[in-house]
Amino acid sequence: MEPLSLHFVHEQVGARFILVGGREVVAGYGDVGAEYGAARDAVALHDASYREILRITGEDRASFLHGMVTQEVKNLPVGSAAYAAFITVKGAMVGDARILKREGDLILDMEPGLGAKVREFLDKYLISEDAELHDGTPESGWLRLLGPRTAQVLAAVLGGPFEALPAQASRQAVVAGQDVWLLGTALPGGVSGVDVLVPRAGLEAVWTALAQAGAAHGLKPLGFDALELLRVEAGVPRYGQDMVDTTIPLEANLTHAISYNKGCYIGQEVIARATFRGRMNRQLAGLLLGNGDVDVAPGTELRRGEKKVGWVTSVVRSPVKGQRVALGYVHRESLEPGTELTLAEGPGTATVAALPFTAG
Protein backbone atom coordinates (compact mmCIF):
# COMPACT_ATOMS: atom_id res chain seq x y z
CA MET A 1 0.00 0.00 0.00
CA GLU A 2 1.17 3.52 -0.86
CA PRO A 3 0.03 5.87 1.95
CA LEU A 4 -1.18 9.40 1.30
CA SER A 5 1.39 12.13 1.87
CA LEU A 6 -1.23 13.95 3.97
CA HIS A 7 -2.42 10.88 5.90
CA PHE A 8 -1.98 12.44 9.33
CA VAL A 9 -3.57 15.74 8.27
CA HIS A 10 -6.72 13.84 7.26
CA GLU A 11 -6.58 11.51 10.25
CA GLN A 12 -6.73 14.48 12.61
CA VAL A 13 -10.17 15.44 11.25
CA GLY A 14 -11.64 11.92 11.42
CA ALA A 15 -11.01 10.71 7.88
CA ARG A 16 -11.81 7.13 6.91
CA PHE A 17 -9.34 5.53 4.51
CA ILE A 18 -9.69 2.92 1.74
CA LEU A 19 -7.46 1.48 -0.97
CA VAL A 20 -7.96 2.29 -4.64
CA GLY A 21 -5.54 0.79 -7.13
CA GLY A 22 -3.14 -0.10 -4.33
CA ARG A 23 -2.93 3.48 -3.06
CA GLU A 24 -4.43 4.99 0.07
CA VAL A 25 -7.41 7.30 -0.47
CA VAL A 26 -9.66 9.26 1.91
CA ALA A 27 -13.11 7.65 1.58
CA GLY A 28 -14.79 10.40 3.57
CA TYR A 29 -14.86 12.61 6.63
CA GLY A 30 -18.08 11.38 8.24
CA ASP A 31 -20.83 13.16 6.28
CA VAL A 32 -20.96 12.26 2.60
CA GLY A 33 -24.07 14.39 2.08
CA ALA A 34 -22.38 17.53 3.40
CA GLU A 35 -19.26 16.89 1.30
CA TYR A 36 -21.36 16.35 -1.81
CA GLY A 37 -23.46 19.44 -1.05
CA ALA A 38 -20.37 21.62 -0.72
CA ALA A 39 -19.12 20.53 -4.16
CA ARG A 40 -22.54 21.25 -5.67
CA ASP A 41 -23.40 24.50 -3.91
CA ALA A 42 -20.26 26.02 -2.37
CA VAL A 43 -16.74 24.60 -2.64
CA ALA A 44 -15.01 21.34 -1.66
CA LEU A 45 -11.35 20.33 -1.45
CA HIS A 46 -10.25 16.83 -2.44
CA ASP A 47 -6.83 15.29 -1.89
CA ALA A 48 -6.18 13.63 -5.27
CA SER A 49 -2.48 13.06 -4.62
CA TYR A 50 -3.14 9.29 -4.84
CA ARG A 51 -3.39 9.69 -8.61
CA GLU A 52 -0.31 8.65 -10.57
CA ILE A 53 1.77 10.92 -12.76
CA LEU A 54 4.02 10.05 -15.69
CA ARG A 55 6.24 12.80 -17.07
CA ILE A 56 7.66 12.69 -20.61
CA THR A 57 10.65 14.80 -21.68
CA GLY A 58 12.85 14.95 -24.79
CA GLU A 59 12.64 16.66 -28.18
CA ASP A 60 10.37 13.98 -29.65
CA ARG A 61 8.02 13.73 -26.65
CA ALA A 62 4.97 15.22 -28.40
CA SER A 63 5.34 13.31 -31.68
CA PHE A 64 6.00 10.06 -29.80
CA LEU A 65 2.96 10.37 -27.54
CA HIS A 66 0.87 11.58 -30.48
CA GLY A 67 1.30 8.16 -32.10
CA MET A 68 0.43 6.33 -28.89
CA VAL A 69 -2.90 7.85 -27.89
CA THR A 70 -6.33 8.48 -29.39
CA GLN A 71 -6.10 12.25 -28.88
CA GLU A 72 -4.26 15.13 -30.57
CA VAL A 73 -0.93 15.89 -28.89
CA LYS A 74 1.36 17.52 -31.47
CA ASN A 75 -1.01 20.43 -32.10
CA LEU A 76 -2.25 20.71 -28.52
CA PRO A 77 -1.39 24.26 -27.40
CA VAL A 78 1.22 24.60 -24.66
CA GLY A 79 -0.59 25.16 -21.38
CA SER A 80 -3.62 23.12 -22.45
CA ALA A 81 -4.74 19.65 -21.43
CA ALA A 82 -6.66 16.91 -23.23
CA TYR A 83 -8.19 13.60 -22.23
CA ALA A 84 -6.95 10.53 -24.13
CA ALA A 85 -7.05 6.76 -24.19
CA PHE A 86 -4.26 4.26 -24.72
CA ILE A 87 -5.44 1.31 -26.80
CA THR A 88 -3.93 -1.86 -28.28
CA VAL A 89 -3.77 -2.68 -31.97
CA LYS A 90 -7.09 -4.49 -31.42
CA GLY A 91 -8.71 -1.33 -30.03
CA ALA A 92 -8.97 -2.47 -26.40
CA MET A 93 -8.04 -0.04 -23.67
CA VAL A 94 -4.73 -0.12 -21.85
CA GLY A 95 -5.72 2.89 -19.77
CA ASP A 96 -6.59 6.57 -19.96
CA ALA A 97 -4.95 9.84 -18.96
CA ARG A 98 -5.33 13.57 -18.88
CA ILE A 99 -2.36 15.03 -20.76
CA LEU A 100 -1.07 18.46 -19.75
CA LYS A 101 1.31 20.00 -22.28
CA ARG A 102 3.88 22.26 -20.67
CA GLU A 103 6.82 24.10 -22.24
CA GLY A 104 9.40 21.49 -21.27
CA ASP A 105 7.44 18.27 -20.75
CA LEU A 106 4.17 16.39 -20.94
CA ILE A 107 2.33 15.43 -17.74
CA LEU A 108 0.11 12.33 -17.79
CA ASP A 109 -2.43 12.31 -14.96
CA MET A 110 -3.76 8.78 -14.36
CA GLU A 111 -5.87 6.65 -12.05
CA PRO A 112 -4.07 5.03 -9.08
CA GLY A 113 -2.44 1.75 -10.04
CA LEU A 114 -2.25 2.63 -13.73
CA GLY A 115 1.19 4.24 -13.94
CA ALA A 116 3.30 1.09 -14.31
CA LYS A 117 0.92 -0.41 -16.88
CA VAL A 118 0.92 2.69 -19.09
CA ARG A 119 4.67 3.12 -18.76
CA GLU A 120 5.26 -0.48 -19.83
CA PHE A 121 2.98 0.06 -22.84
CA LEU A 122 4.84 3.20 -23.88
CA ASP A 123 8.26 1.67 -23.24
CA LYS A 124 7.47 -1.17 -25.65
CA TYR A 125 7.16 1.29 -28.54
CA LEU A 126 9.89 3.74 -27.50
CA ILE A 127 12.80 2.75 -29.77
CA SER A 128 14.76 5.54 -31.42
CA GLU A 129 12.77 8.63 -30.43
CA ASP A 130 14.31 11.29 -28.21
CA ALA A 131 11.80 10.85 -25.41
CA GLU A 132 12.24 9.79 -21.79
CA LEU A 133 9.64 8.50 -19.34
CA HIS A 134 9.83 9.58 -15.69
CA ASP A 135 7.74 8.57 -12.69
CA GLY A 136 6.33 11.93 -11.63
CA THR A 137 4.25 10.63 -8.73
CA PRO A 138 7.00 11.06 -6.09
CA GLU A 139 7.58 14.61 -7.35
CA SER A 140 4.07 16.08 -7.48
CA GLY A 141 0.46 15.55 -6.41
CA TRP A 142 -2.97 16.92 -7.30
CA LEU A 143 -5.37 18.77 -5.02
CA ARG A 144 -8.86 19.40 -6.43
CA LEU A 145 -11.22 22.30 -5.75
CA LEU A 146 -14.81 21.70 -6.89
CA GLY A 147 -17.81 23.97 -6.70
CA PRO A 148 -19.16 27.39 -7.70
CA ARG A 149 -17.05 29.25 -5.12
CA THR A 150 -13.73 27.87 -6.37
CA ALA A 151 -12.73 31.23 -7.88
CA GLN A 152 -13.36 33.05 -4.56
CA VAL A 153 -11.12 30.61 -2.70
CA LEU A 154 -8.32 30.99 -5.22
CA ALA A 155 -8.68 34.77 -5.20
CA ALA A 156 -8.33 34.73 -1.41
CA VAL A 157 -5.30 32.49 -1.39
CA LEU A 158 -3.61 34.34 -4.28
CA GLY A 159 -4.34 37.78 -2.84
CA GLY A 160 -6.12 39.19 -5.89
CA PRO A 161 -8.90 38.59 -8.43
CA PHE A 162 -8.94 35.14 -10.00
CA GLU A 163 -10.09 34.92 -13.59
CA ALA A 164 -12.01 31.66 -14.05
CA LEU A 165 -10.13 28.93 -15.89
CA PRO A 166 -11.97 27.13 -18.71
CA ALA A 167 -11.85 23.35 -18.56
CA GLN A 168 -8.48 21.98 -19.75
CA ALA A 169 -6.79 25.41 -19.61
CA SER A 170 -3.93 26.03 -17.18
CA ARG A 171 -1.84 28.75 -15.65
CA GLN A 172 1.02 28.92 -13.17
CA ALA A 173 0.73 30.49 -9.73
CA VAL A 174 2.36 30.60 -6.31
CA VAL A 175 0.32 29.27 -3.38
CA ALA A 176 1.75 29.12 0.16
CA GLY A 177 5.23 29.69 -1.27
CA GLN A 178 4.87 26.76 -3.69
CA ASP A 179 5.07 27.00 -7.48
CA VAL A 180 1.87 25.29 -8.67
CA TRP A 181 -0.08 24.68 -11.86
CA LEU A 182 -3.80 25.47 -11.90
CA LEU A 183 -5.87 23.42 -14.37
CA GLY A 184 -9.55 24.01 -15.08
CA THR A 185 -11.89 21.02 -14.75
CA ALA A 186 -15.57 20.34 -15.39
CA LEU A 187 -17.95 17.42 -15.03
CA PRO A 188 -21.03 17.02 -17.26
CA GLY A 189 -24.01 18.29 -15.32
CA GLY A 190 -22.51 21.55 -14.14
CA VAL A 191 -19.87 20.83 -11.46
CA SER A 192 -16.64 22.64 -12.28
CA GLY A 193 -13.45 23.54 -10.45
CA VAL A 194 -9.69 23.77 -10.58
CA ASP A 195 -7.06 21.09 -10.04
CA VAL A 196 -3.83 22.24 -8.42
CA LEU A 197 -0.58 20.43 -9.26
CA VAL A 198 1.71 20.84 -6.25
CA PRO A 199 5.29 19.76 -5.50
CA ARG A 200 4.80 16.79 -3.17
CA ALA A 201 6.88 18.39 -0.43
CA GLY A 202 4.49 21.37 -0.46
CA LEU A 203 1.19 19.49 -0.35
CA GLU A 204 0.52 20.17 3.33
CA ALA A 205 1.25 23.89 3.02
CA VAL A 206 -1.03 24.28 -0.02
CA TRP A 207 -3.81 22.10 1.45
CA THR A 208 -3.76 24.20 4.64
CA ALA A 209 -3.76 27.49 2.72
CA LEU A 210 -6.71 26.44 0.54
CA ALA A 211 -8.66 25.09 3.51
CA GLN A 212 -8.13 28.28 5.51
CA ALA A 213 -8.98 30.54 2.56
CA GLY A 214 -12.11 28.48 1.89
CA ALA A 215 -13.46 28.60 5.43
CA ALA A 216 -15.34 31.84 4.72
CA HIS A 217 -16.86 30.31 1.59
CA GLY A 218 -18.26 27.10 3.09
CA LEU A 219 -15.39 24.84 2.04
CA LYS A 220 -15.48 21.24 3.20
CA PRO A 221 -12.94 18.47 2.59
CA LEU A 222 -14.26 16.01 0.01
CA GLY A 223 -13.72 12.25 0.20
CA PHE A 224 -13.66 9.65 -2.56
CA ASP A 225 -17.20 8.42 -1.81
CA ALA A 226 -18.70 11.86 -2.44
CA LEU A 227 -16.51 12.30 -5.51
CA GLU A 228 -17.88 9.01 -6.86
CA LEU A 229 -21.41 10.33 -6.37
CA LEU A 230 -20.57 13.34 -8.53
CA ARG A 231 -18.79 11.20 -11.12
CA VAL A 232 -21.59 8.68 -11.57
CA GLU A 233 -24.28 11.38 -11.70
CA ALA A 234 -22.20 13.04 -14.43
CA GLY A 235 -22.03 9.75 -16.35
CA VAL A 236 -18.23 9.73 -16.40
CA PRO A 237 -16.65 6.25 -16.55
CA ARG A 238 -13.58 5.50 -14.43
CA TYR A 239 -10.86 3.13 -15.60
CA GLY A 240 -10.67 0.13 -13.29
CA GLN A 241 -14.36 0.46 -12.40
CA ASP A 242 -16.34 1.08 -15.59
CA MET A 243 -13.54 0.46 -18.10
CA VAL A 244 -11.15 -2.49 -18.23
CA ASP A 245 -8.66 -3.95 -20.67
CA THR A 246 -11.41 -5.34 -22.93
CA THR A 247 -13.26 -2.01 -23.26
CA ILE A 248 -13.23 -0.20 -26.60
CA PRO A 249 -13.35 3.59 -26.00
CA LEU A 250 -16.48 4.08 -28.11
CA GLU A 251 -18.35 1.64 -25.86
CA ALA A 252 -17.61 3.92 -22.91
CA ASN A 253 -18.81 7.09 -24.71
CA LEU A 254 -15.24 8.42 -24.99
CA THR A 255 -15.69 10.23 -28.31
CA HIS A 256 -14.25 13.35 -26.63
CA ALA A 257 -11.00 11.39 -26.15
CA ILE A 258 -10.65 10.67 -29.87
CA SER A 259 -9.27 12.90 -32.62
CA TYR A 260 -10.40 11.88 -36.10
CA ASN A 261 -8.00 14.27 -37.86
CA LYS A 262 -4.67 13.48 -36.22
CA GLY A 263 -3.30 10.73 -38.43
CA CYS A 264 -1.99 7.34 -37.40
CA TYR A 265 -1.92 5.97 -33.86
CA ILE A 266 -1.96 2.51 -32.35
CA GLY A 267 -5.43 1.00 -32.67
CA GLN A 268 -6.69 3.68 -35.07
CA GLU A 269 -8.00 1.20 -37.66
CA VAL A 270 -10.30 -0.46 -35.13
CA ILE A 271 -11.70 2.91 -33.99
CA ALA A 272 -12.17 4.02 -37.61
CA ARG A 273 -14.01 0.81 -38.56
CA ALA A 274 -16.24 0.98 -35.48
CA THR A 275 -17.06 4.64 -36.18
CA PHE A 276 -17.88 3.92 -39.83
CA ARG A 277 -20.07 0.99 -38.84
CA GLY A 278 -22.04 3.18 -36.43
CA ARG A 279 -23.34 2.16 -33.03
CA MET A 280 -21.34 -0.32 -30.96
CA ASN A 281 -22.93 -3.62 -29.92
CA ARG A 282 -23.02 -2.33 -26.36
CA GLN A 283 -22.63 1.08 -24.78
CA LEU A 284 -22.31 2.64 -21.35
CA ALA A 285 -25.70 3.88 -20.15
CA GLY A 286 -27.41 5.26 -17.08
CA LEU A 287 -29.63 2.99 -15.00
CA LEU A 288 -32.32 3.92 -12.47
CA LEU A 289 -32.56 1.32 -9.71
CA GLY A 290 -35.22 2.80 -7.41
CA ASN A 291 -35.11 2.53 -3.62
CA GLY A 292 -35.86 -1.16 -3.19
CA ASP A 293 -34.22 -3.47 -0.68
CA VAL A 294 -32.37 -5.48 -3.33
CA ASP A 295 -28.62 -4.92 -3.15
CA VAL A 296 -27.15 -4.19 -6.57
CA ALA A 297 -23.40 -4.73 -6.86
CA PRO A 298 -21.05 -3.97 -9.74
CA GLY A 299 -21.03 -6.94 -12.09
CA THR A 300 -24.74 -7.66 -11.62
CA GLU A 301 -26.16 -9.03 -14.87
CA LEU A 302 -28.92 -7.15 -16.72
CA ARG A 303 -31.61 -9.11 -18.57
CA ARG A 304 -34.44 -8.34 -20.94
CA GLY A 305 -36.77 -11.28 -20.75
CA GLU A 306 -34.52 -14.34 -20.75
CA LYS A 307 -31.72 -12.63 -22.65
CA LYS A 308 -28.60 -11.16 -21.06
CA VAL A 309 -28.24 -7.61 -22.35
CA GLY A 310 -25.55 -6.12 -20.12
CA TRP A 311 -24.12 -5.60 -16.64
CA VAL A 312 -23.72 -2.97 -13.94
CA THR A 313 -20.37 -1.25 -13.30
CA SER A 314 -20.92 1.55 -10.72
CA VAL A 315 -23.74 2.04 -8.20
CA VAL A 316 -24.46 5.07 -5.97
CA ARG A 317 -27.43 6.57 -4.13
CA SER A 318 -28.01 9.77 -6.11
CA PRO A 319 -29.18 12.96 -4.38
CA VAL A 320 -30.09 14.39 -7.81
CA LYS A 321 -32.44 11.52 -8.67
CA GLY A 322 -33.50 10.66 -5.11
CA GLN A 323 -32.82 6.97 -5.68
CA ARG A 324 -30.03 4.52 -6.47
CA VAL A 325 -28.52 4.98 -9.91
CA ALA A 326 -25.87 3.08 -11.80
CA LEU A 327 -23.65 3.03 -14.83
CA GLY A 328 -23.58 -0.13 -16.86
CA TYR A 329 -23.12 -1.58 -20.33
CA VAL A 330 -26.32 -2.27 -22.25
CA HIS A 331 -26.85 -3.97 -25.63
CA ARG A 332 -27.69 -1.51 -28.41
CA GLU A 333 -31.20 -2.92 -28.85
CA SER A 334 -32.05 -2.04 -25.23
CA LEU A 335 -30.48 1.42 -24.99
CA GLU A 336 -33.63 3.49 -25.42
CA PRO A 337 -34.25 5.54 -22.24
CA GLY A 338 -37.23 4.11 -20.38
CA THR A 339 -36.42 0.50 -21.32
CA GLU A 340 -37.01 -1.71 -18.28
CA LEU A 341 -34.51 -4.47 -17.55
CA THR A 342 -34.40 -7.04 -14.80
CA LEU A 343 -31.52 -7.89 -12.49
CA ALA A 344 -30.24 -11.44 -12.71
CA GLU A 345 -29.85 -11.56 -8.92
CA GLY A 346 -33.13 -10.92 -7.10
CA PRO A 347 -36.45 -9.37 -8.14
CA GLY A 348 -35.16 -5.84 -8.80
CA THR A 349 -35.44 -3.87 -12.02
CA ALA A 350 -33.29 -1.26 -13.77
CA THR A 351 -34.64 1.43 -16.10
CA VAL A 352 -32.33 2.77 -18.80
CA ALA A 353 -31.75 6.54 -18.48
CA ALA A 354 -29.89 9.20 -20.41
CA LEU A 355 -26.56 10.55 -19.14
CA PRO A 356 -25.75 12.69 -17.29
CA PHE A 357 -28.41 12.10 -14.64
CA THR A 358 -30.46 15.25 -14.08
CA ALA A 359 -33.10 16.31 -11.56
CA GLY A 360 -36.69 15.34 -12.24
From TrEMBL:
Its taxonomic placement starts with: Bacteria, Pseudomonadati, Myxococcota, Myxococcia, Myxococcales
Gene3D superfamilies from the xrefs?
Probable tRNA modification gtpase trme, domain 1
Give the top-rank taxon of the lineage listed in the UniProt record for this protein. Answer: Bacteria
Instruction: Give the Gene Ontology MF terms in alphabetical order.
Output: transferase activity
Q: Which UniProt keywords apply?
A: Transferase, Transit peptide
Where is each GCVT N-terminal domain found?
A: 6-262
Source organism: Corallococcus terminator
Every copy of the Aminomethyltransferase C-terminal domain together lies at: 282-357
Query: Could you tell me what this protein is called?
Result: Aminomethyl transferase family protein
Q: Which SUPFAM superfamilies match?
A: Aminomethyltransferase beta-barrel domain (SSF101790), Folate-binding domain (SSF103025)
* UniProt cross-references to Pfam families, sorted A to Z: GCV_T, GCV_T_C
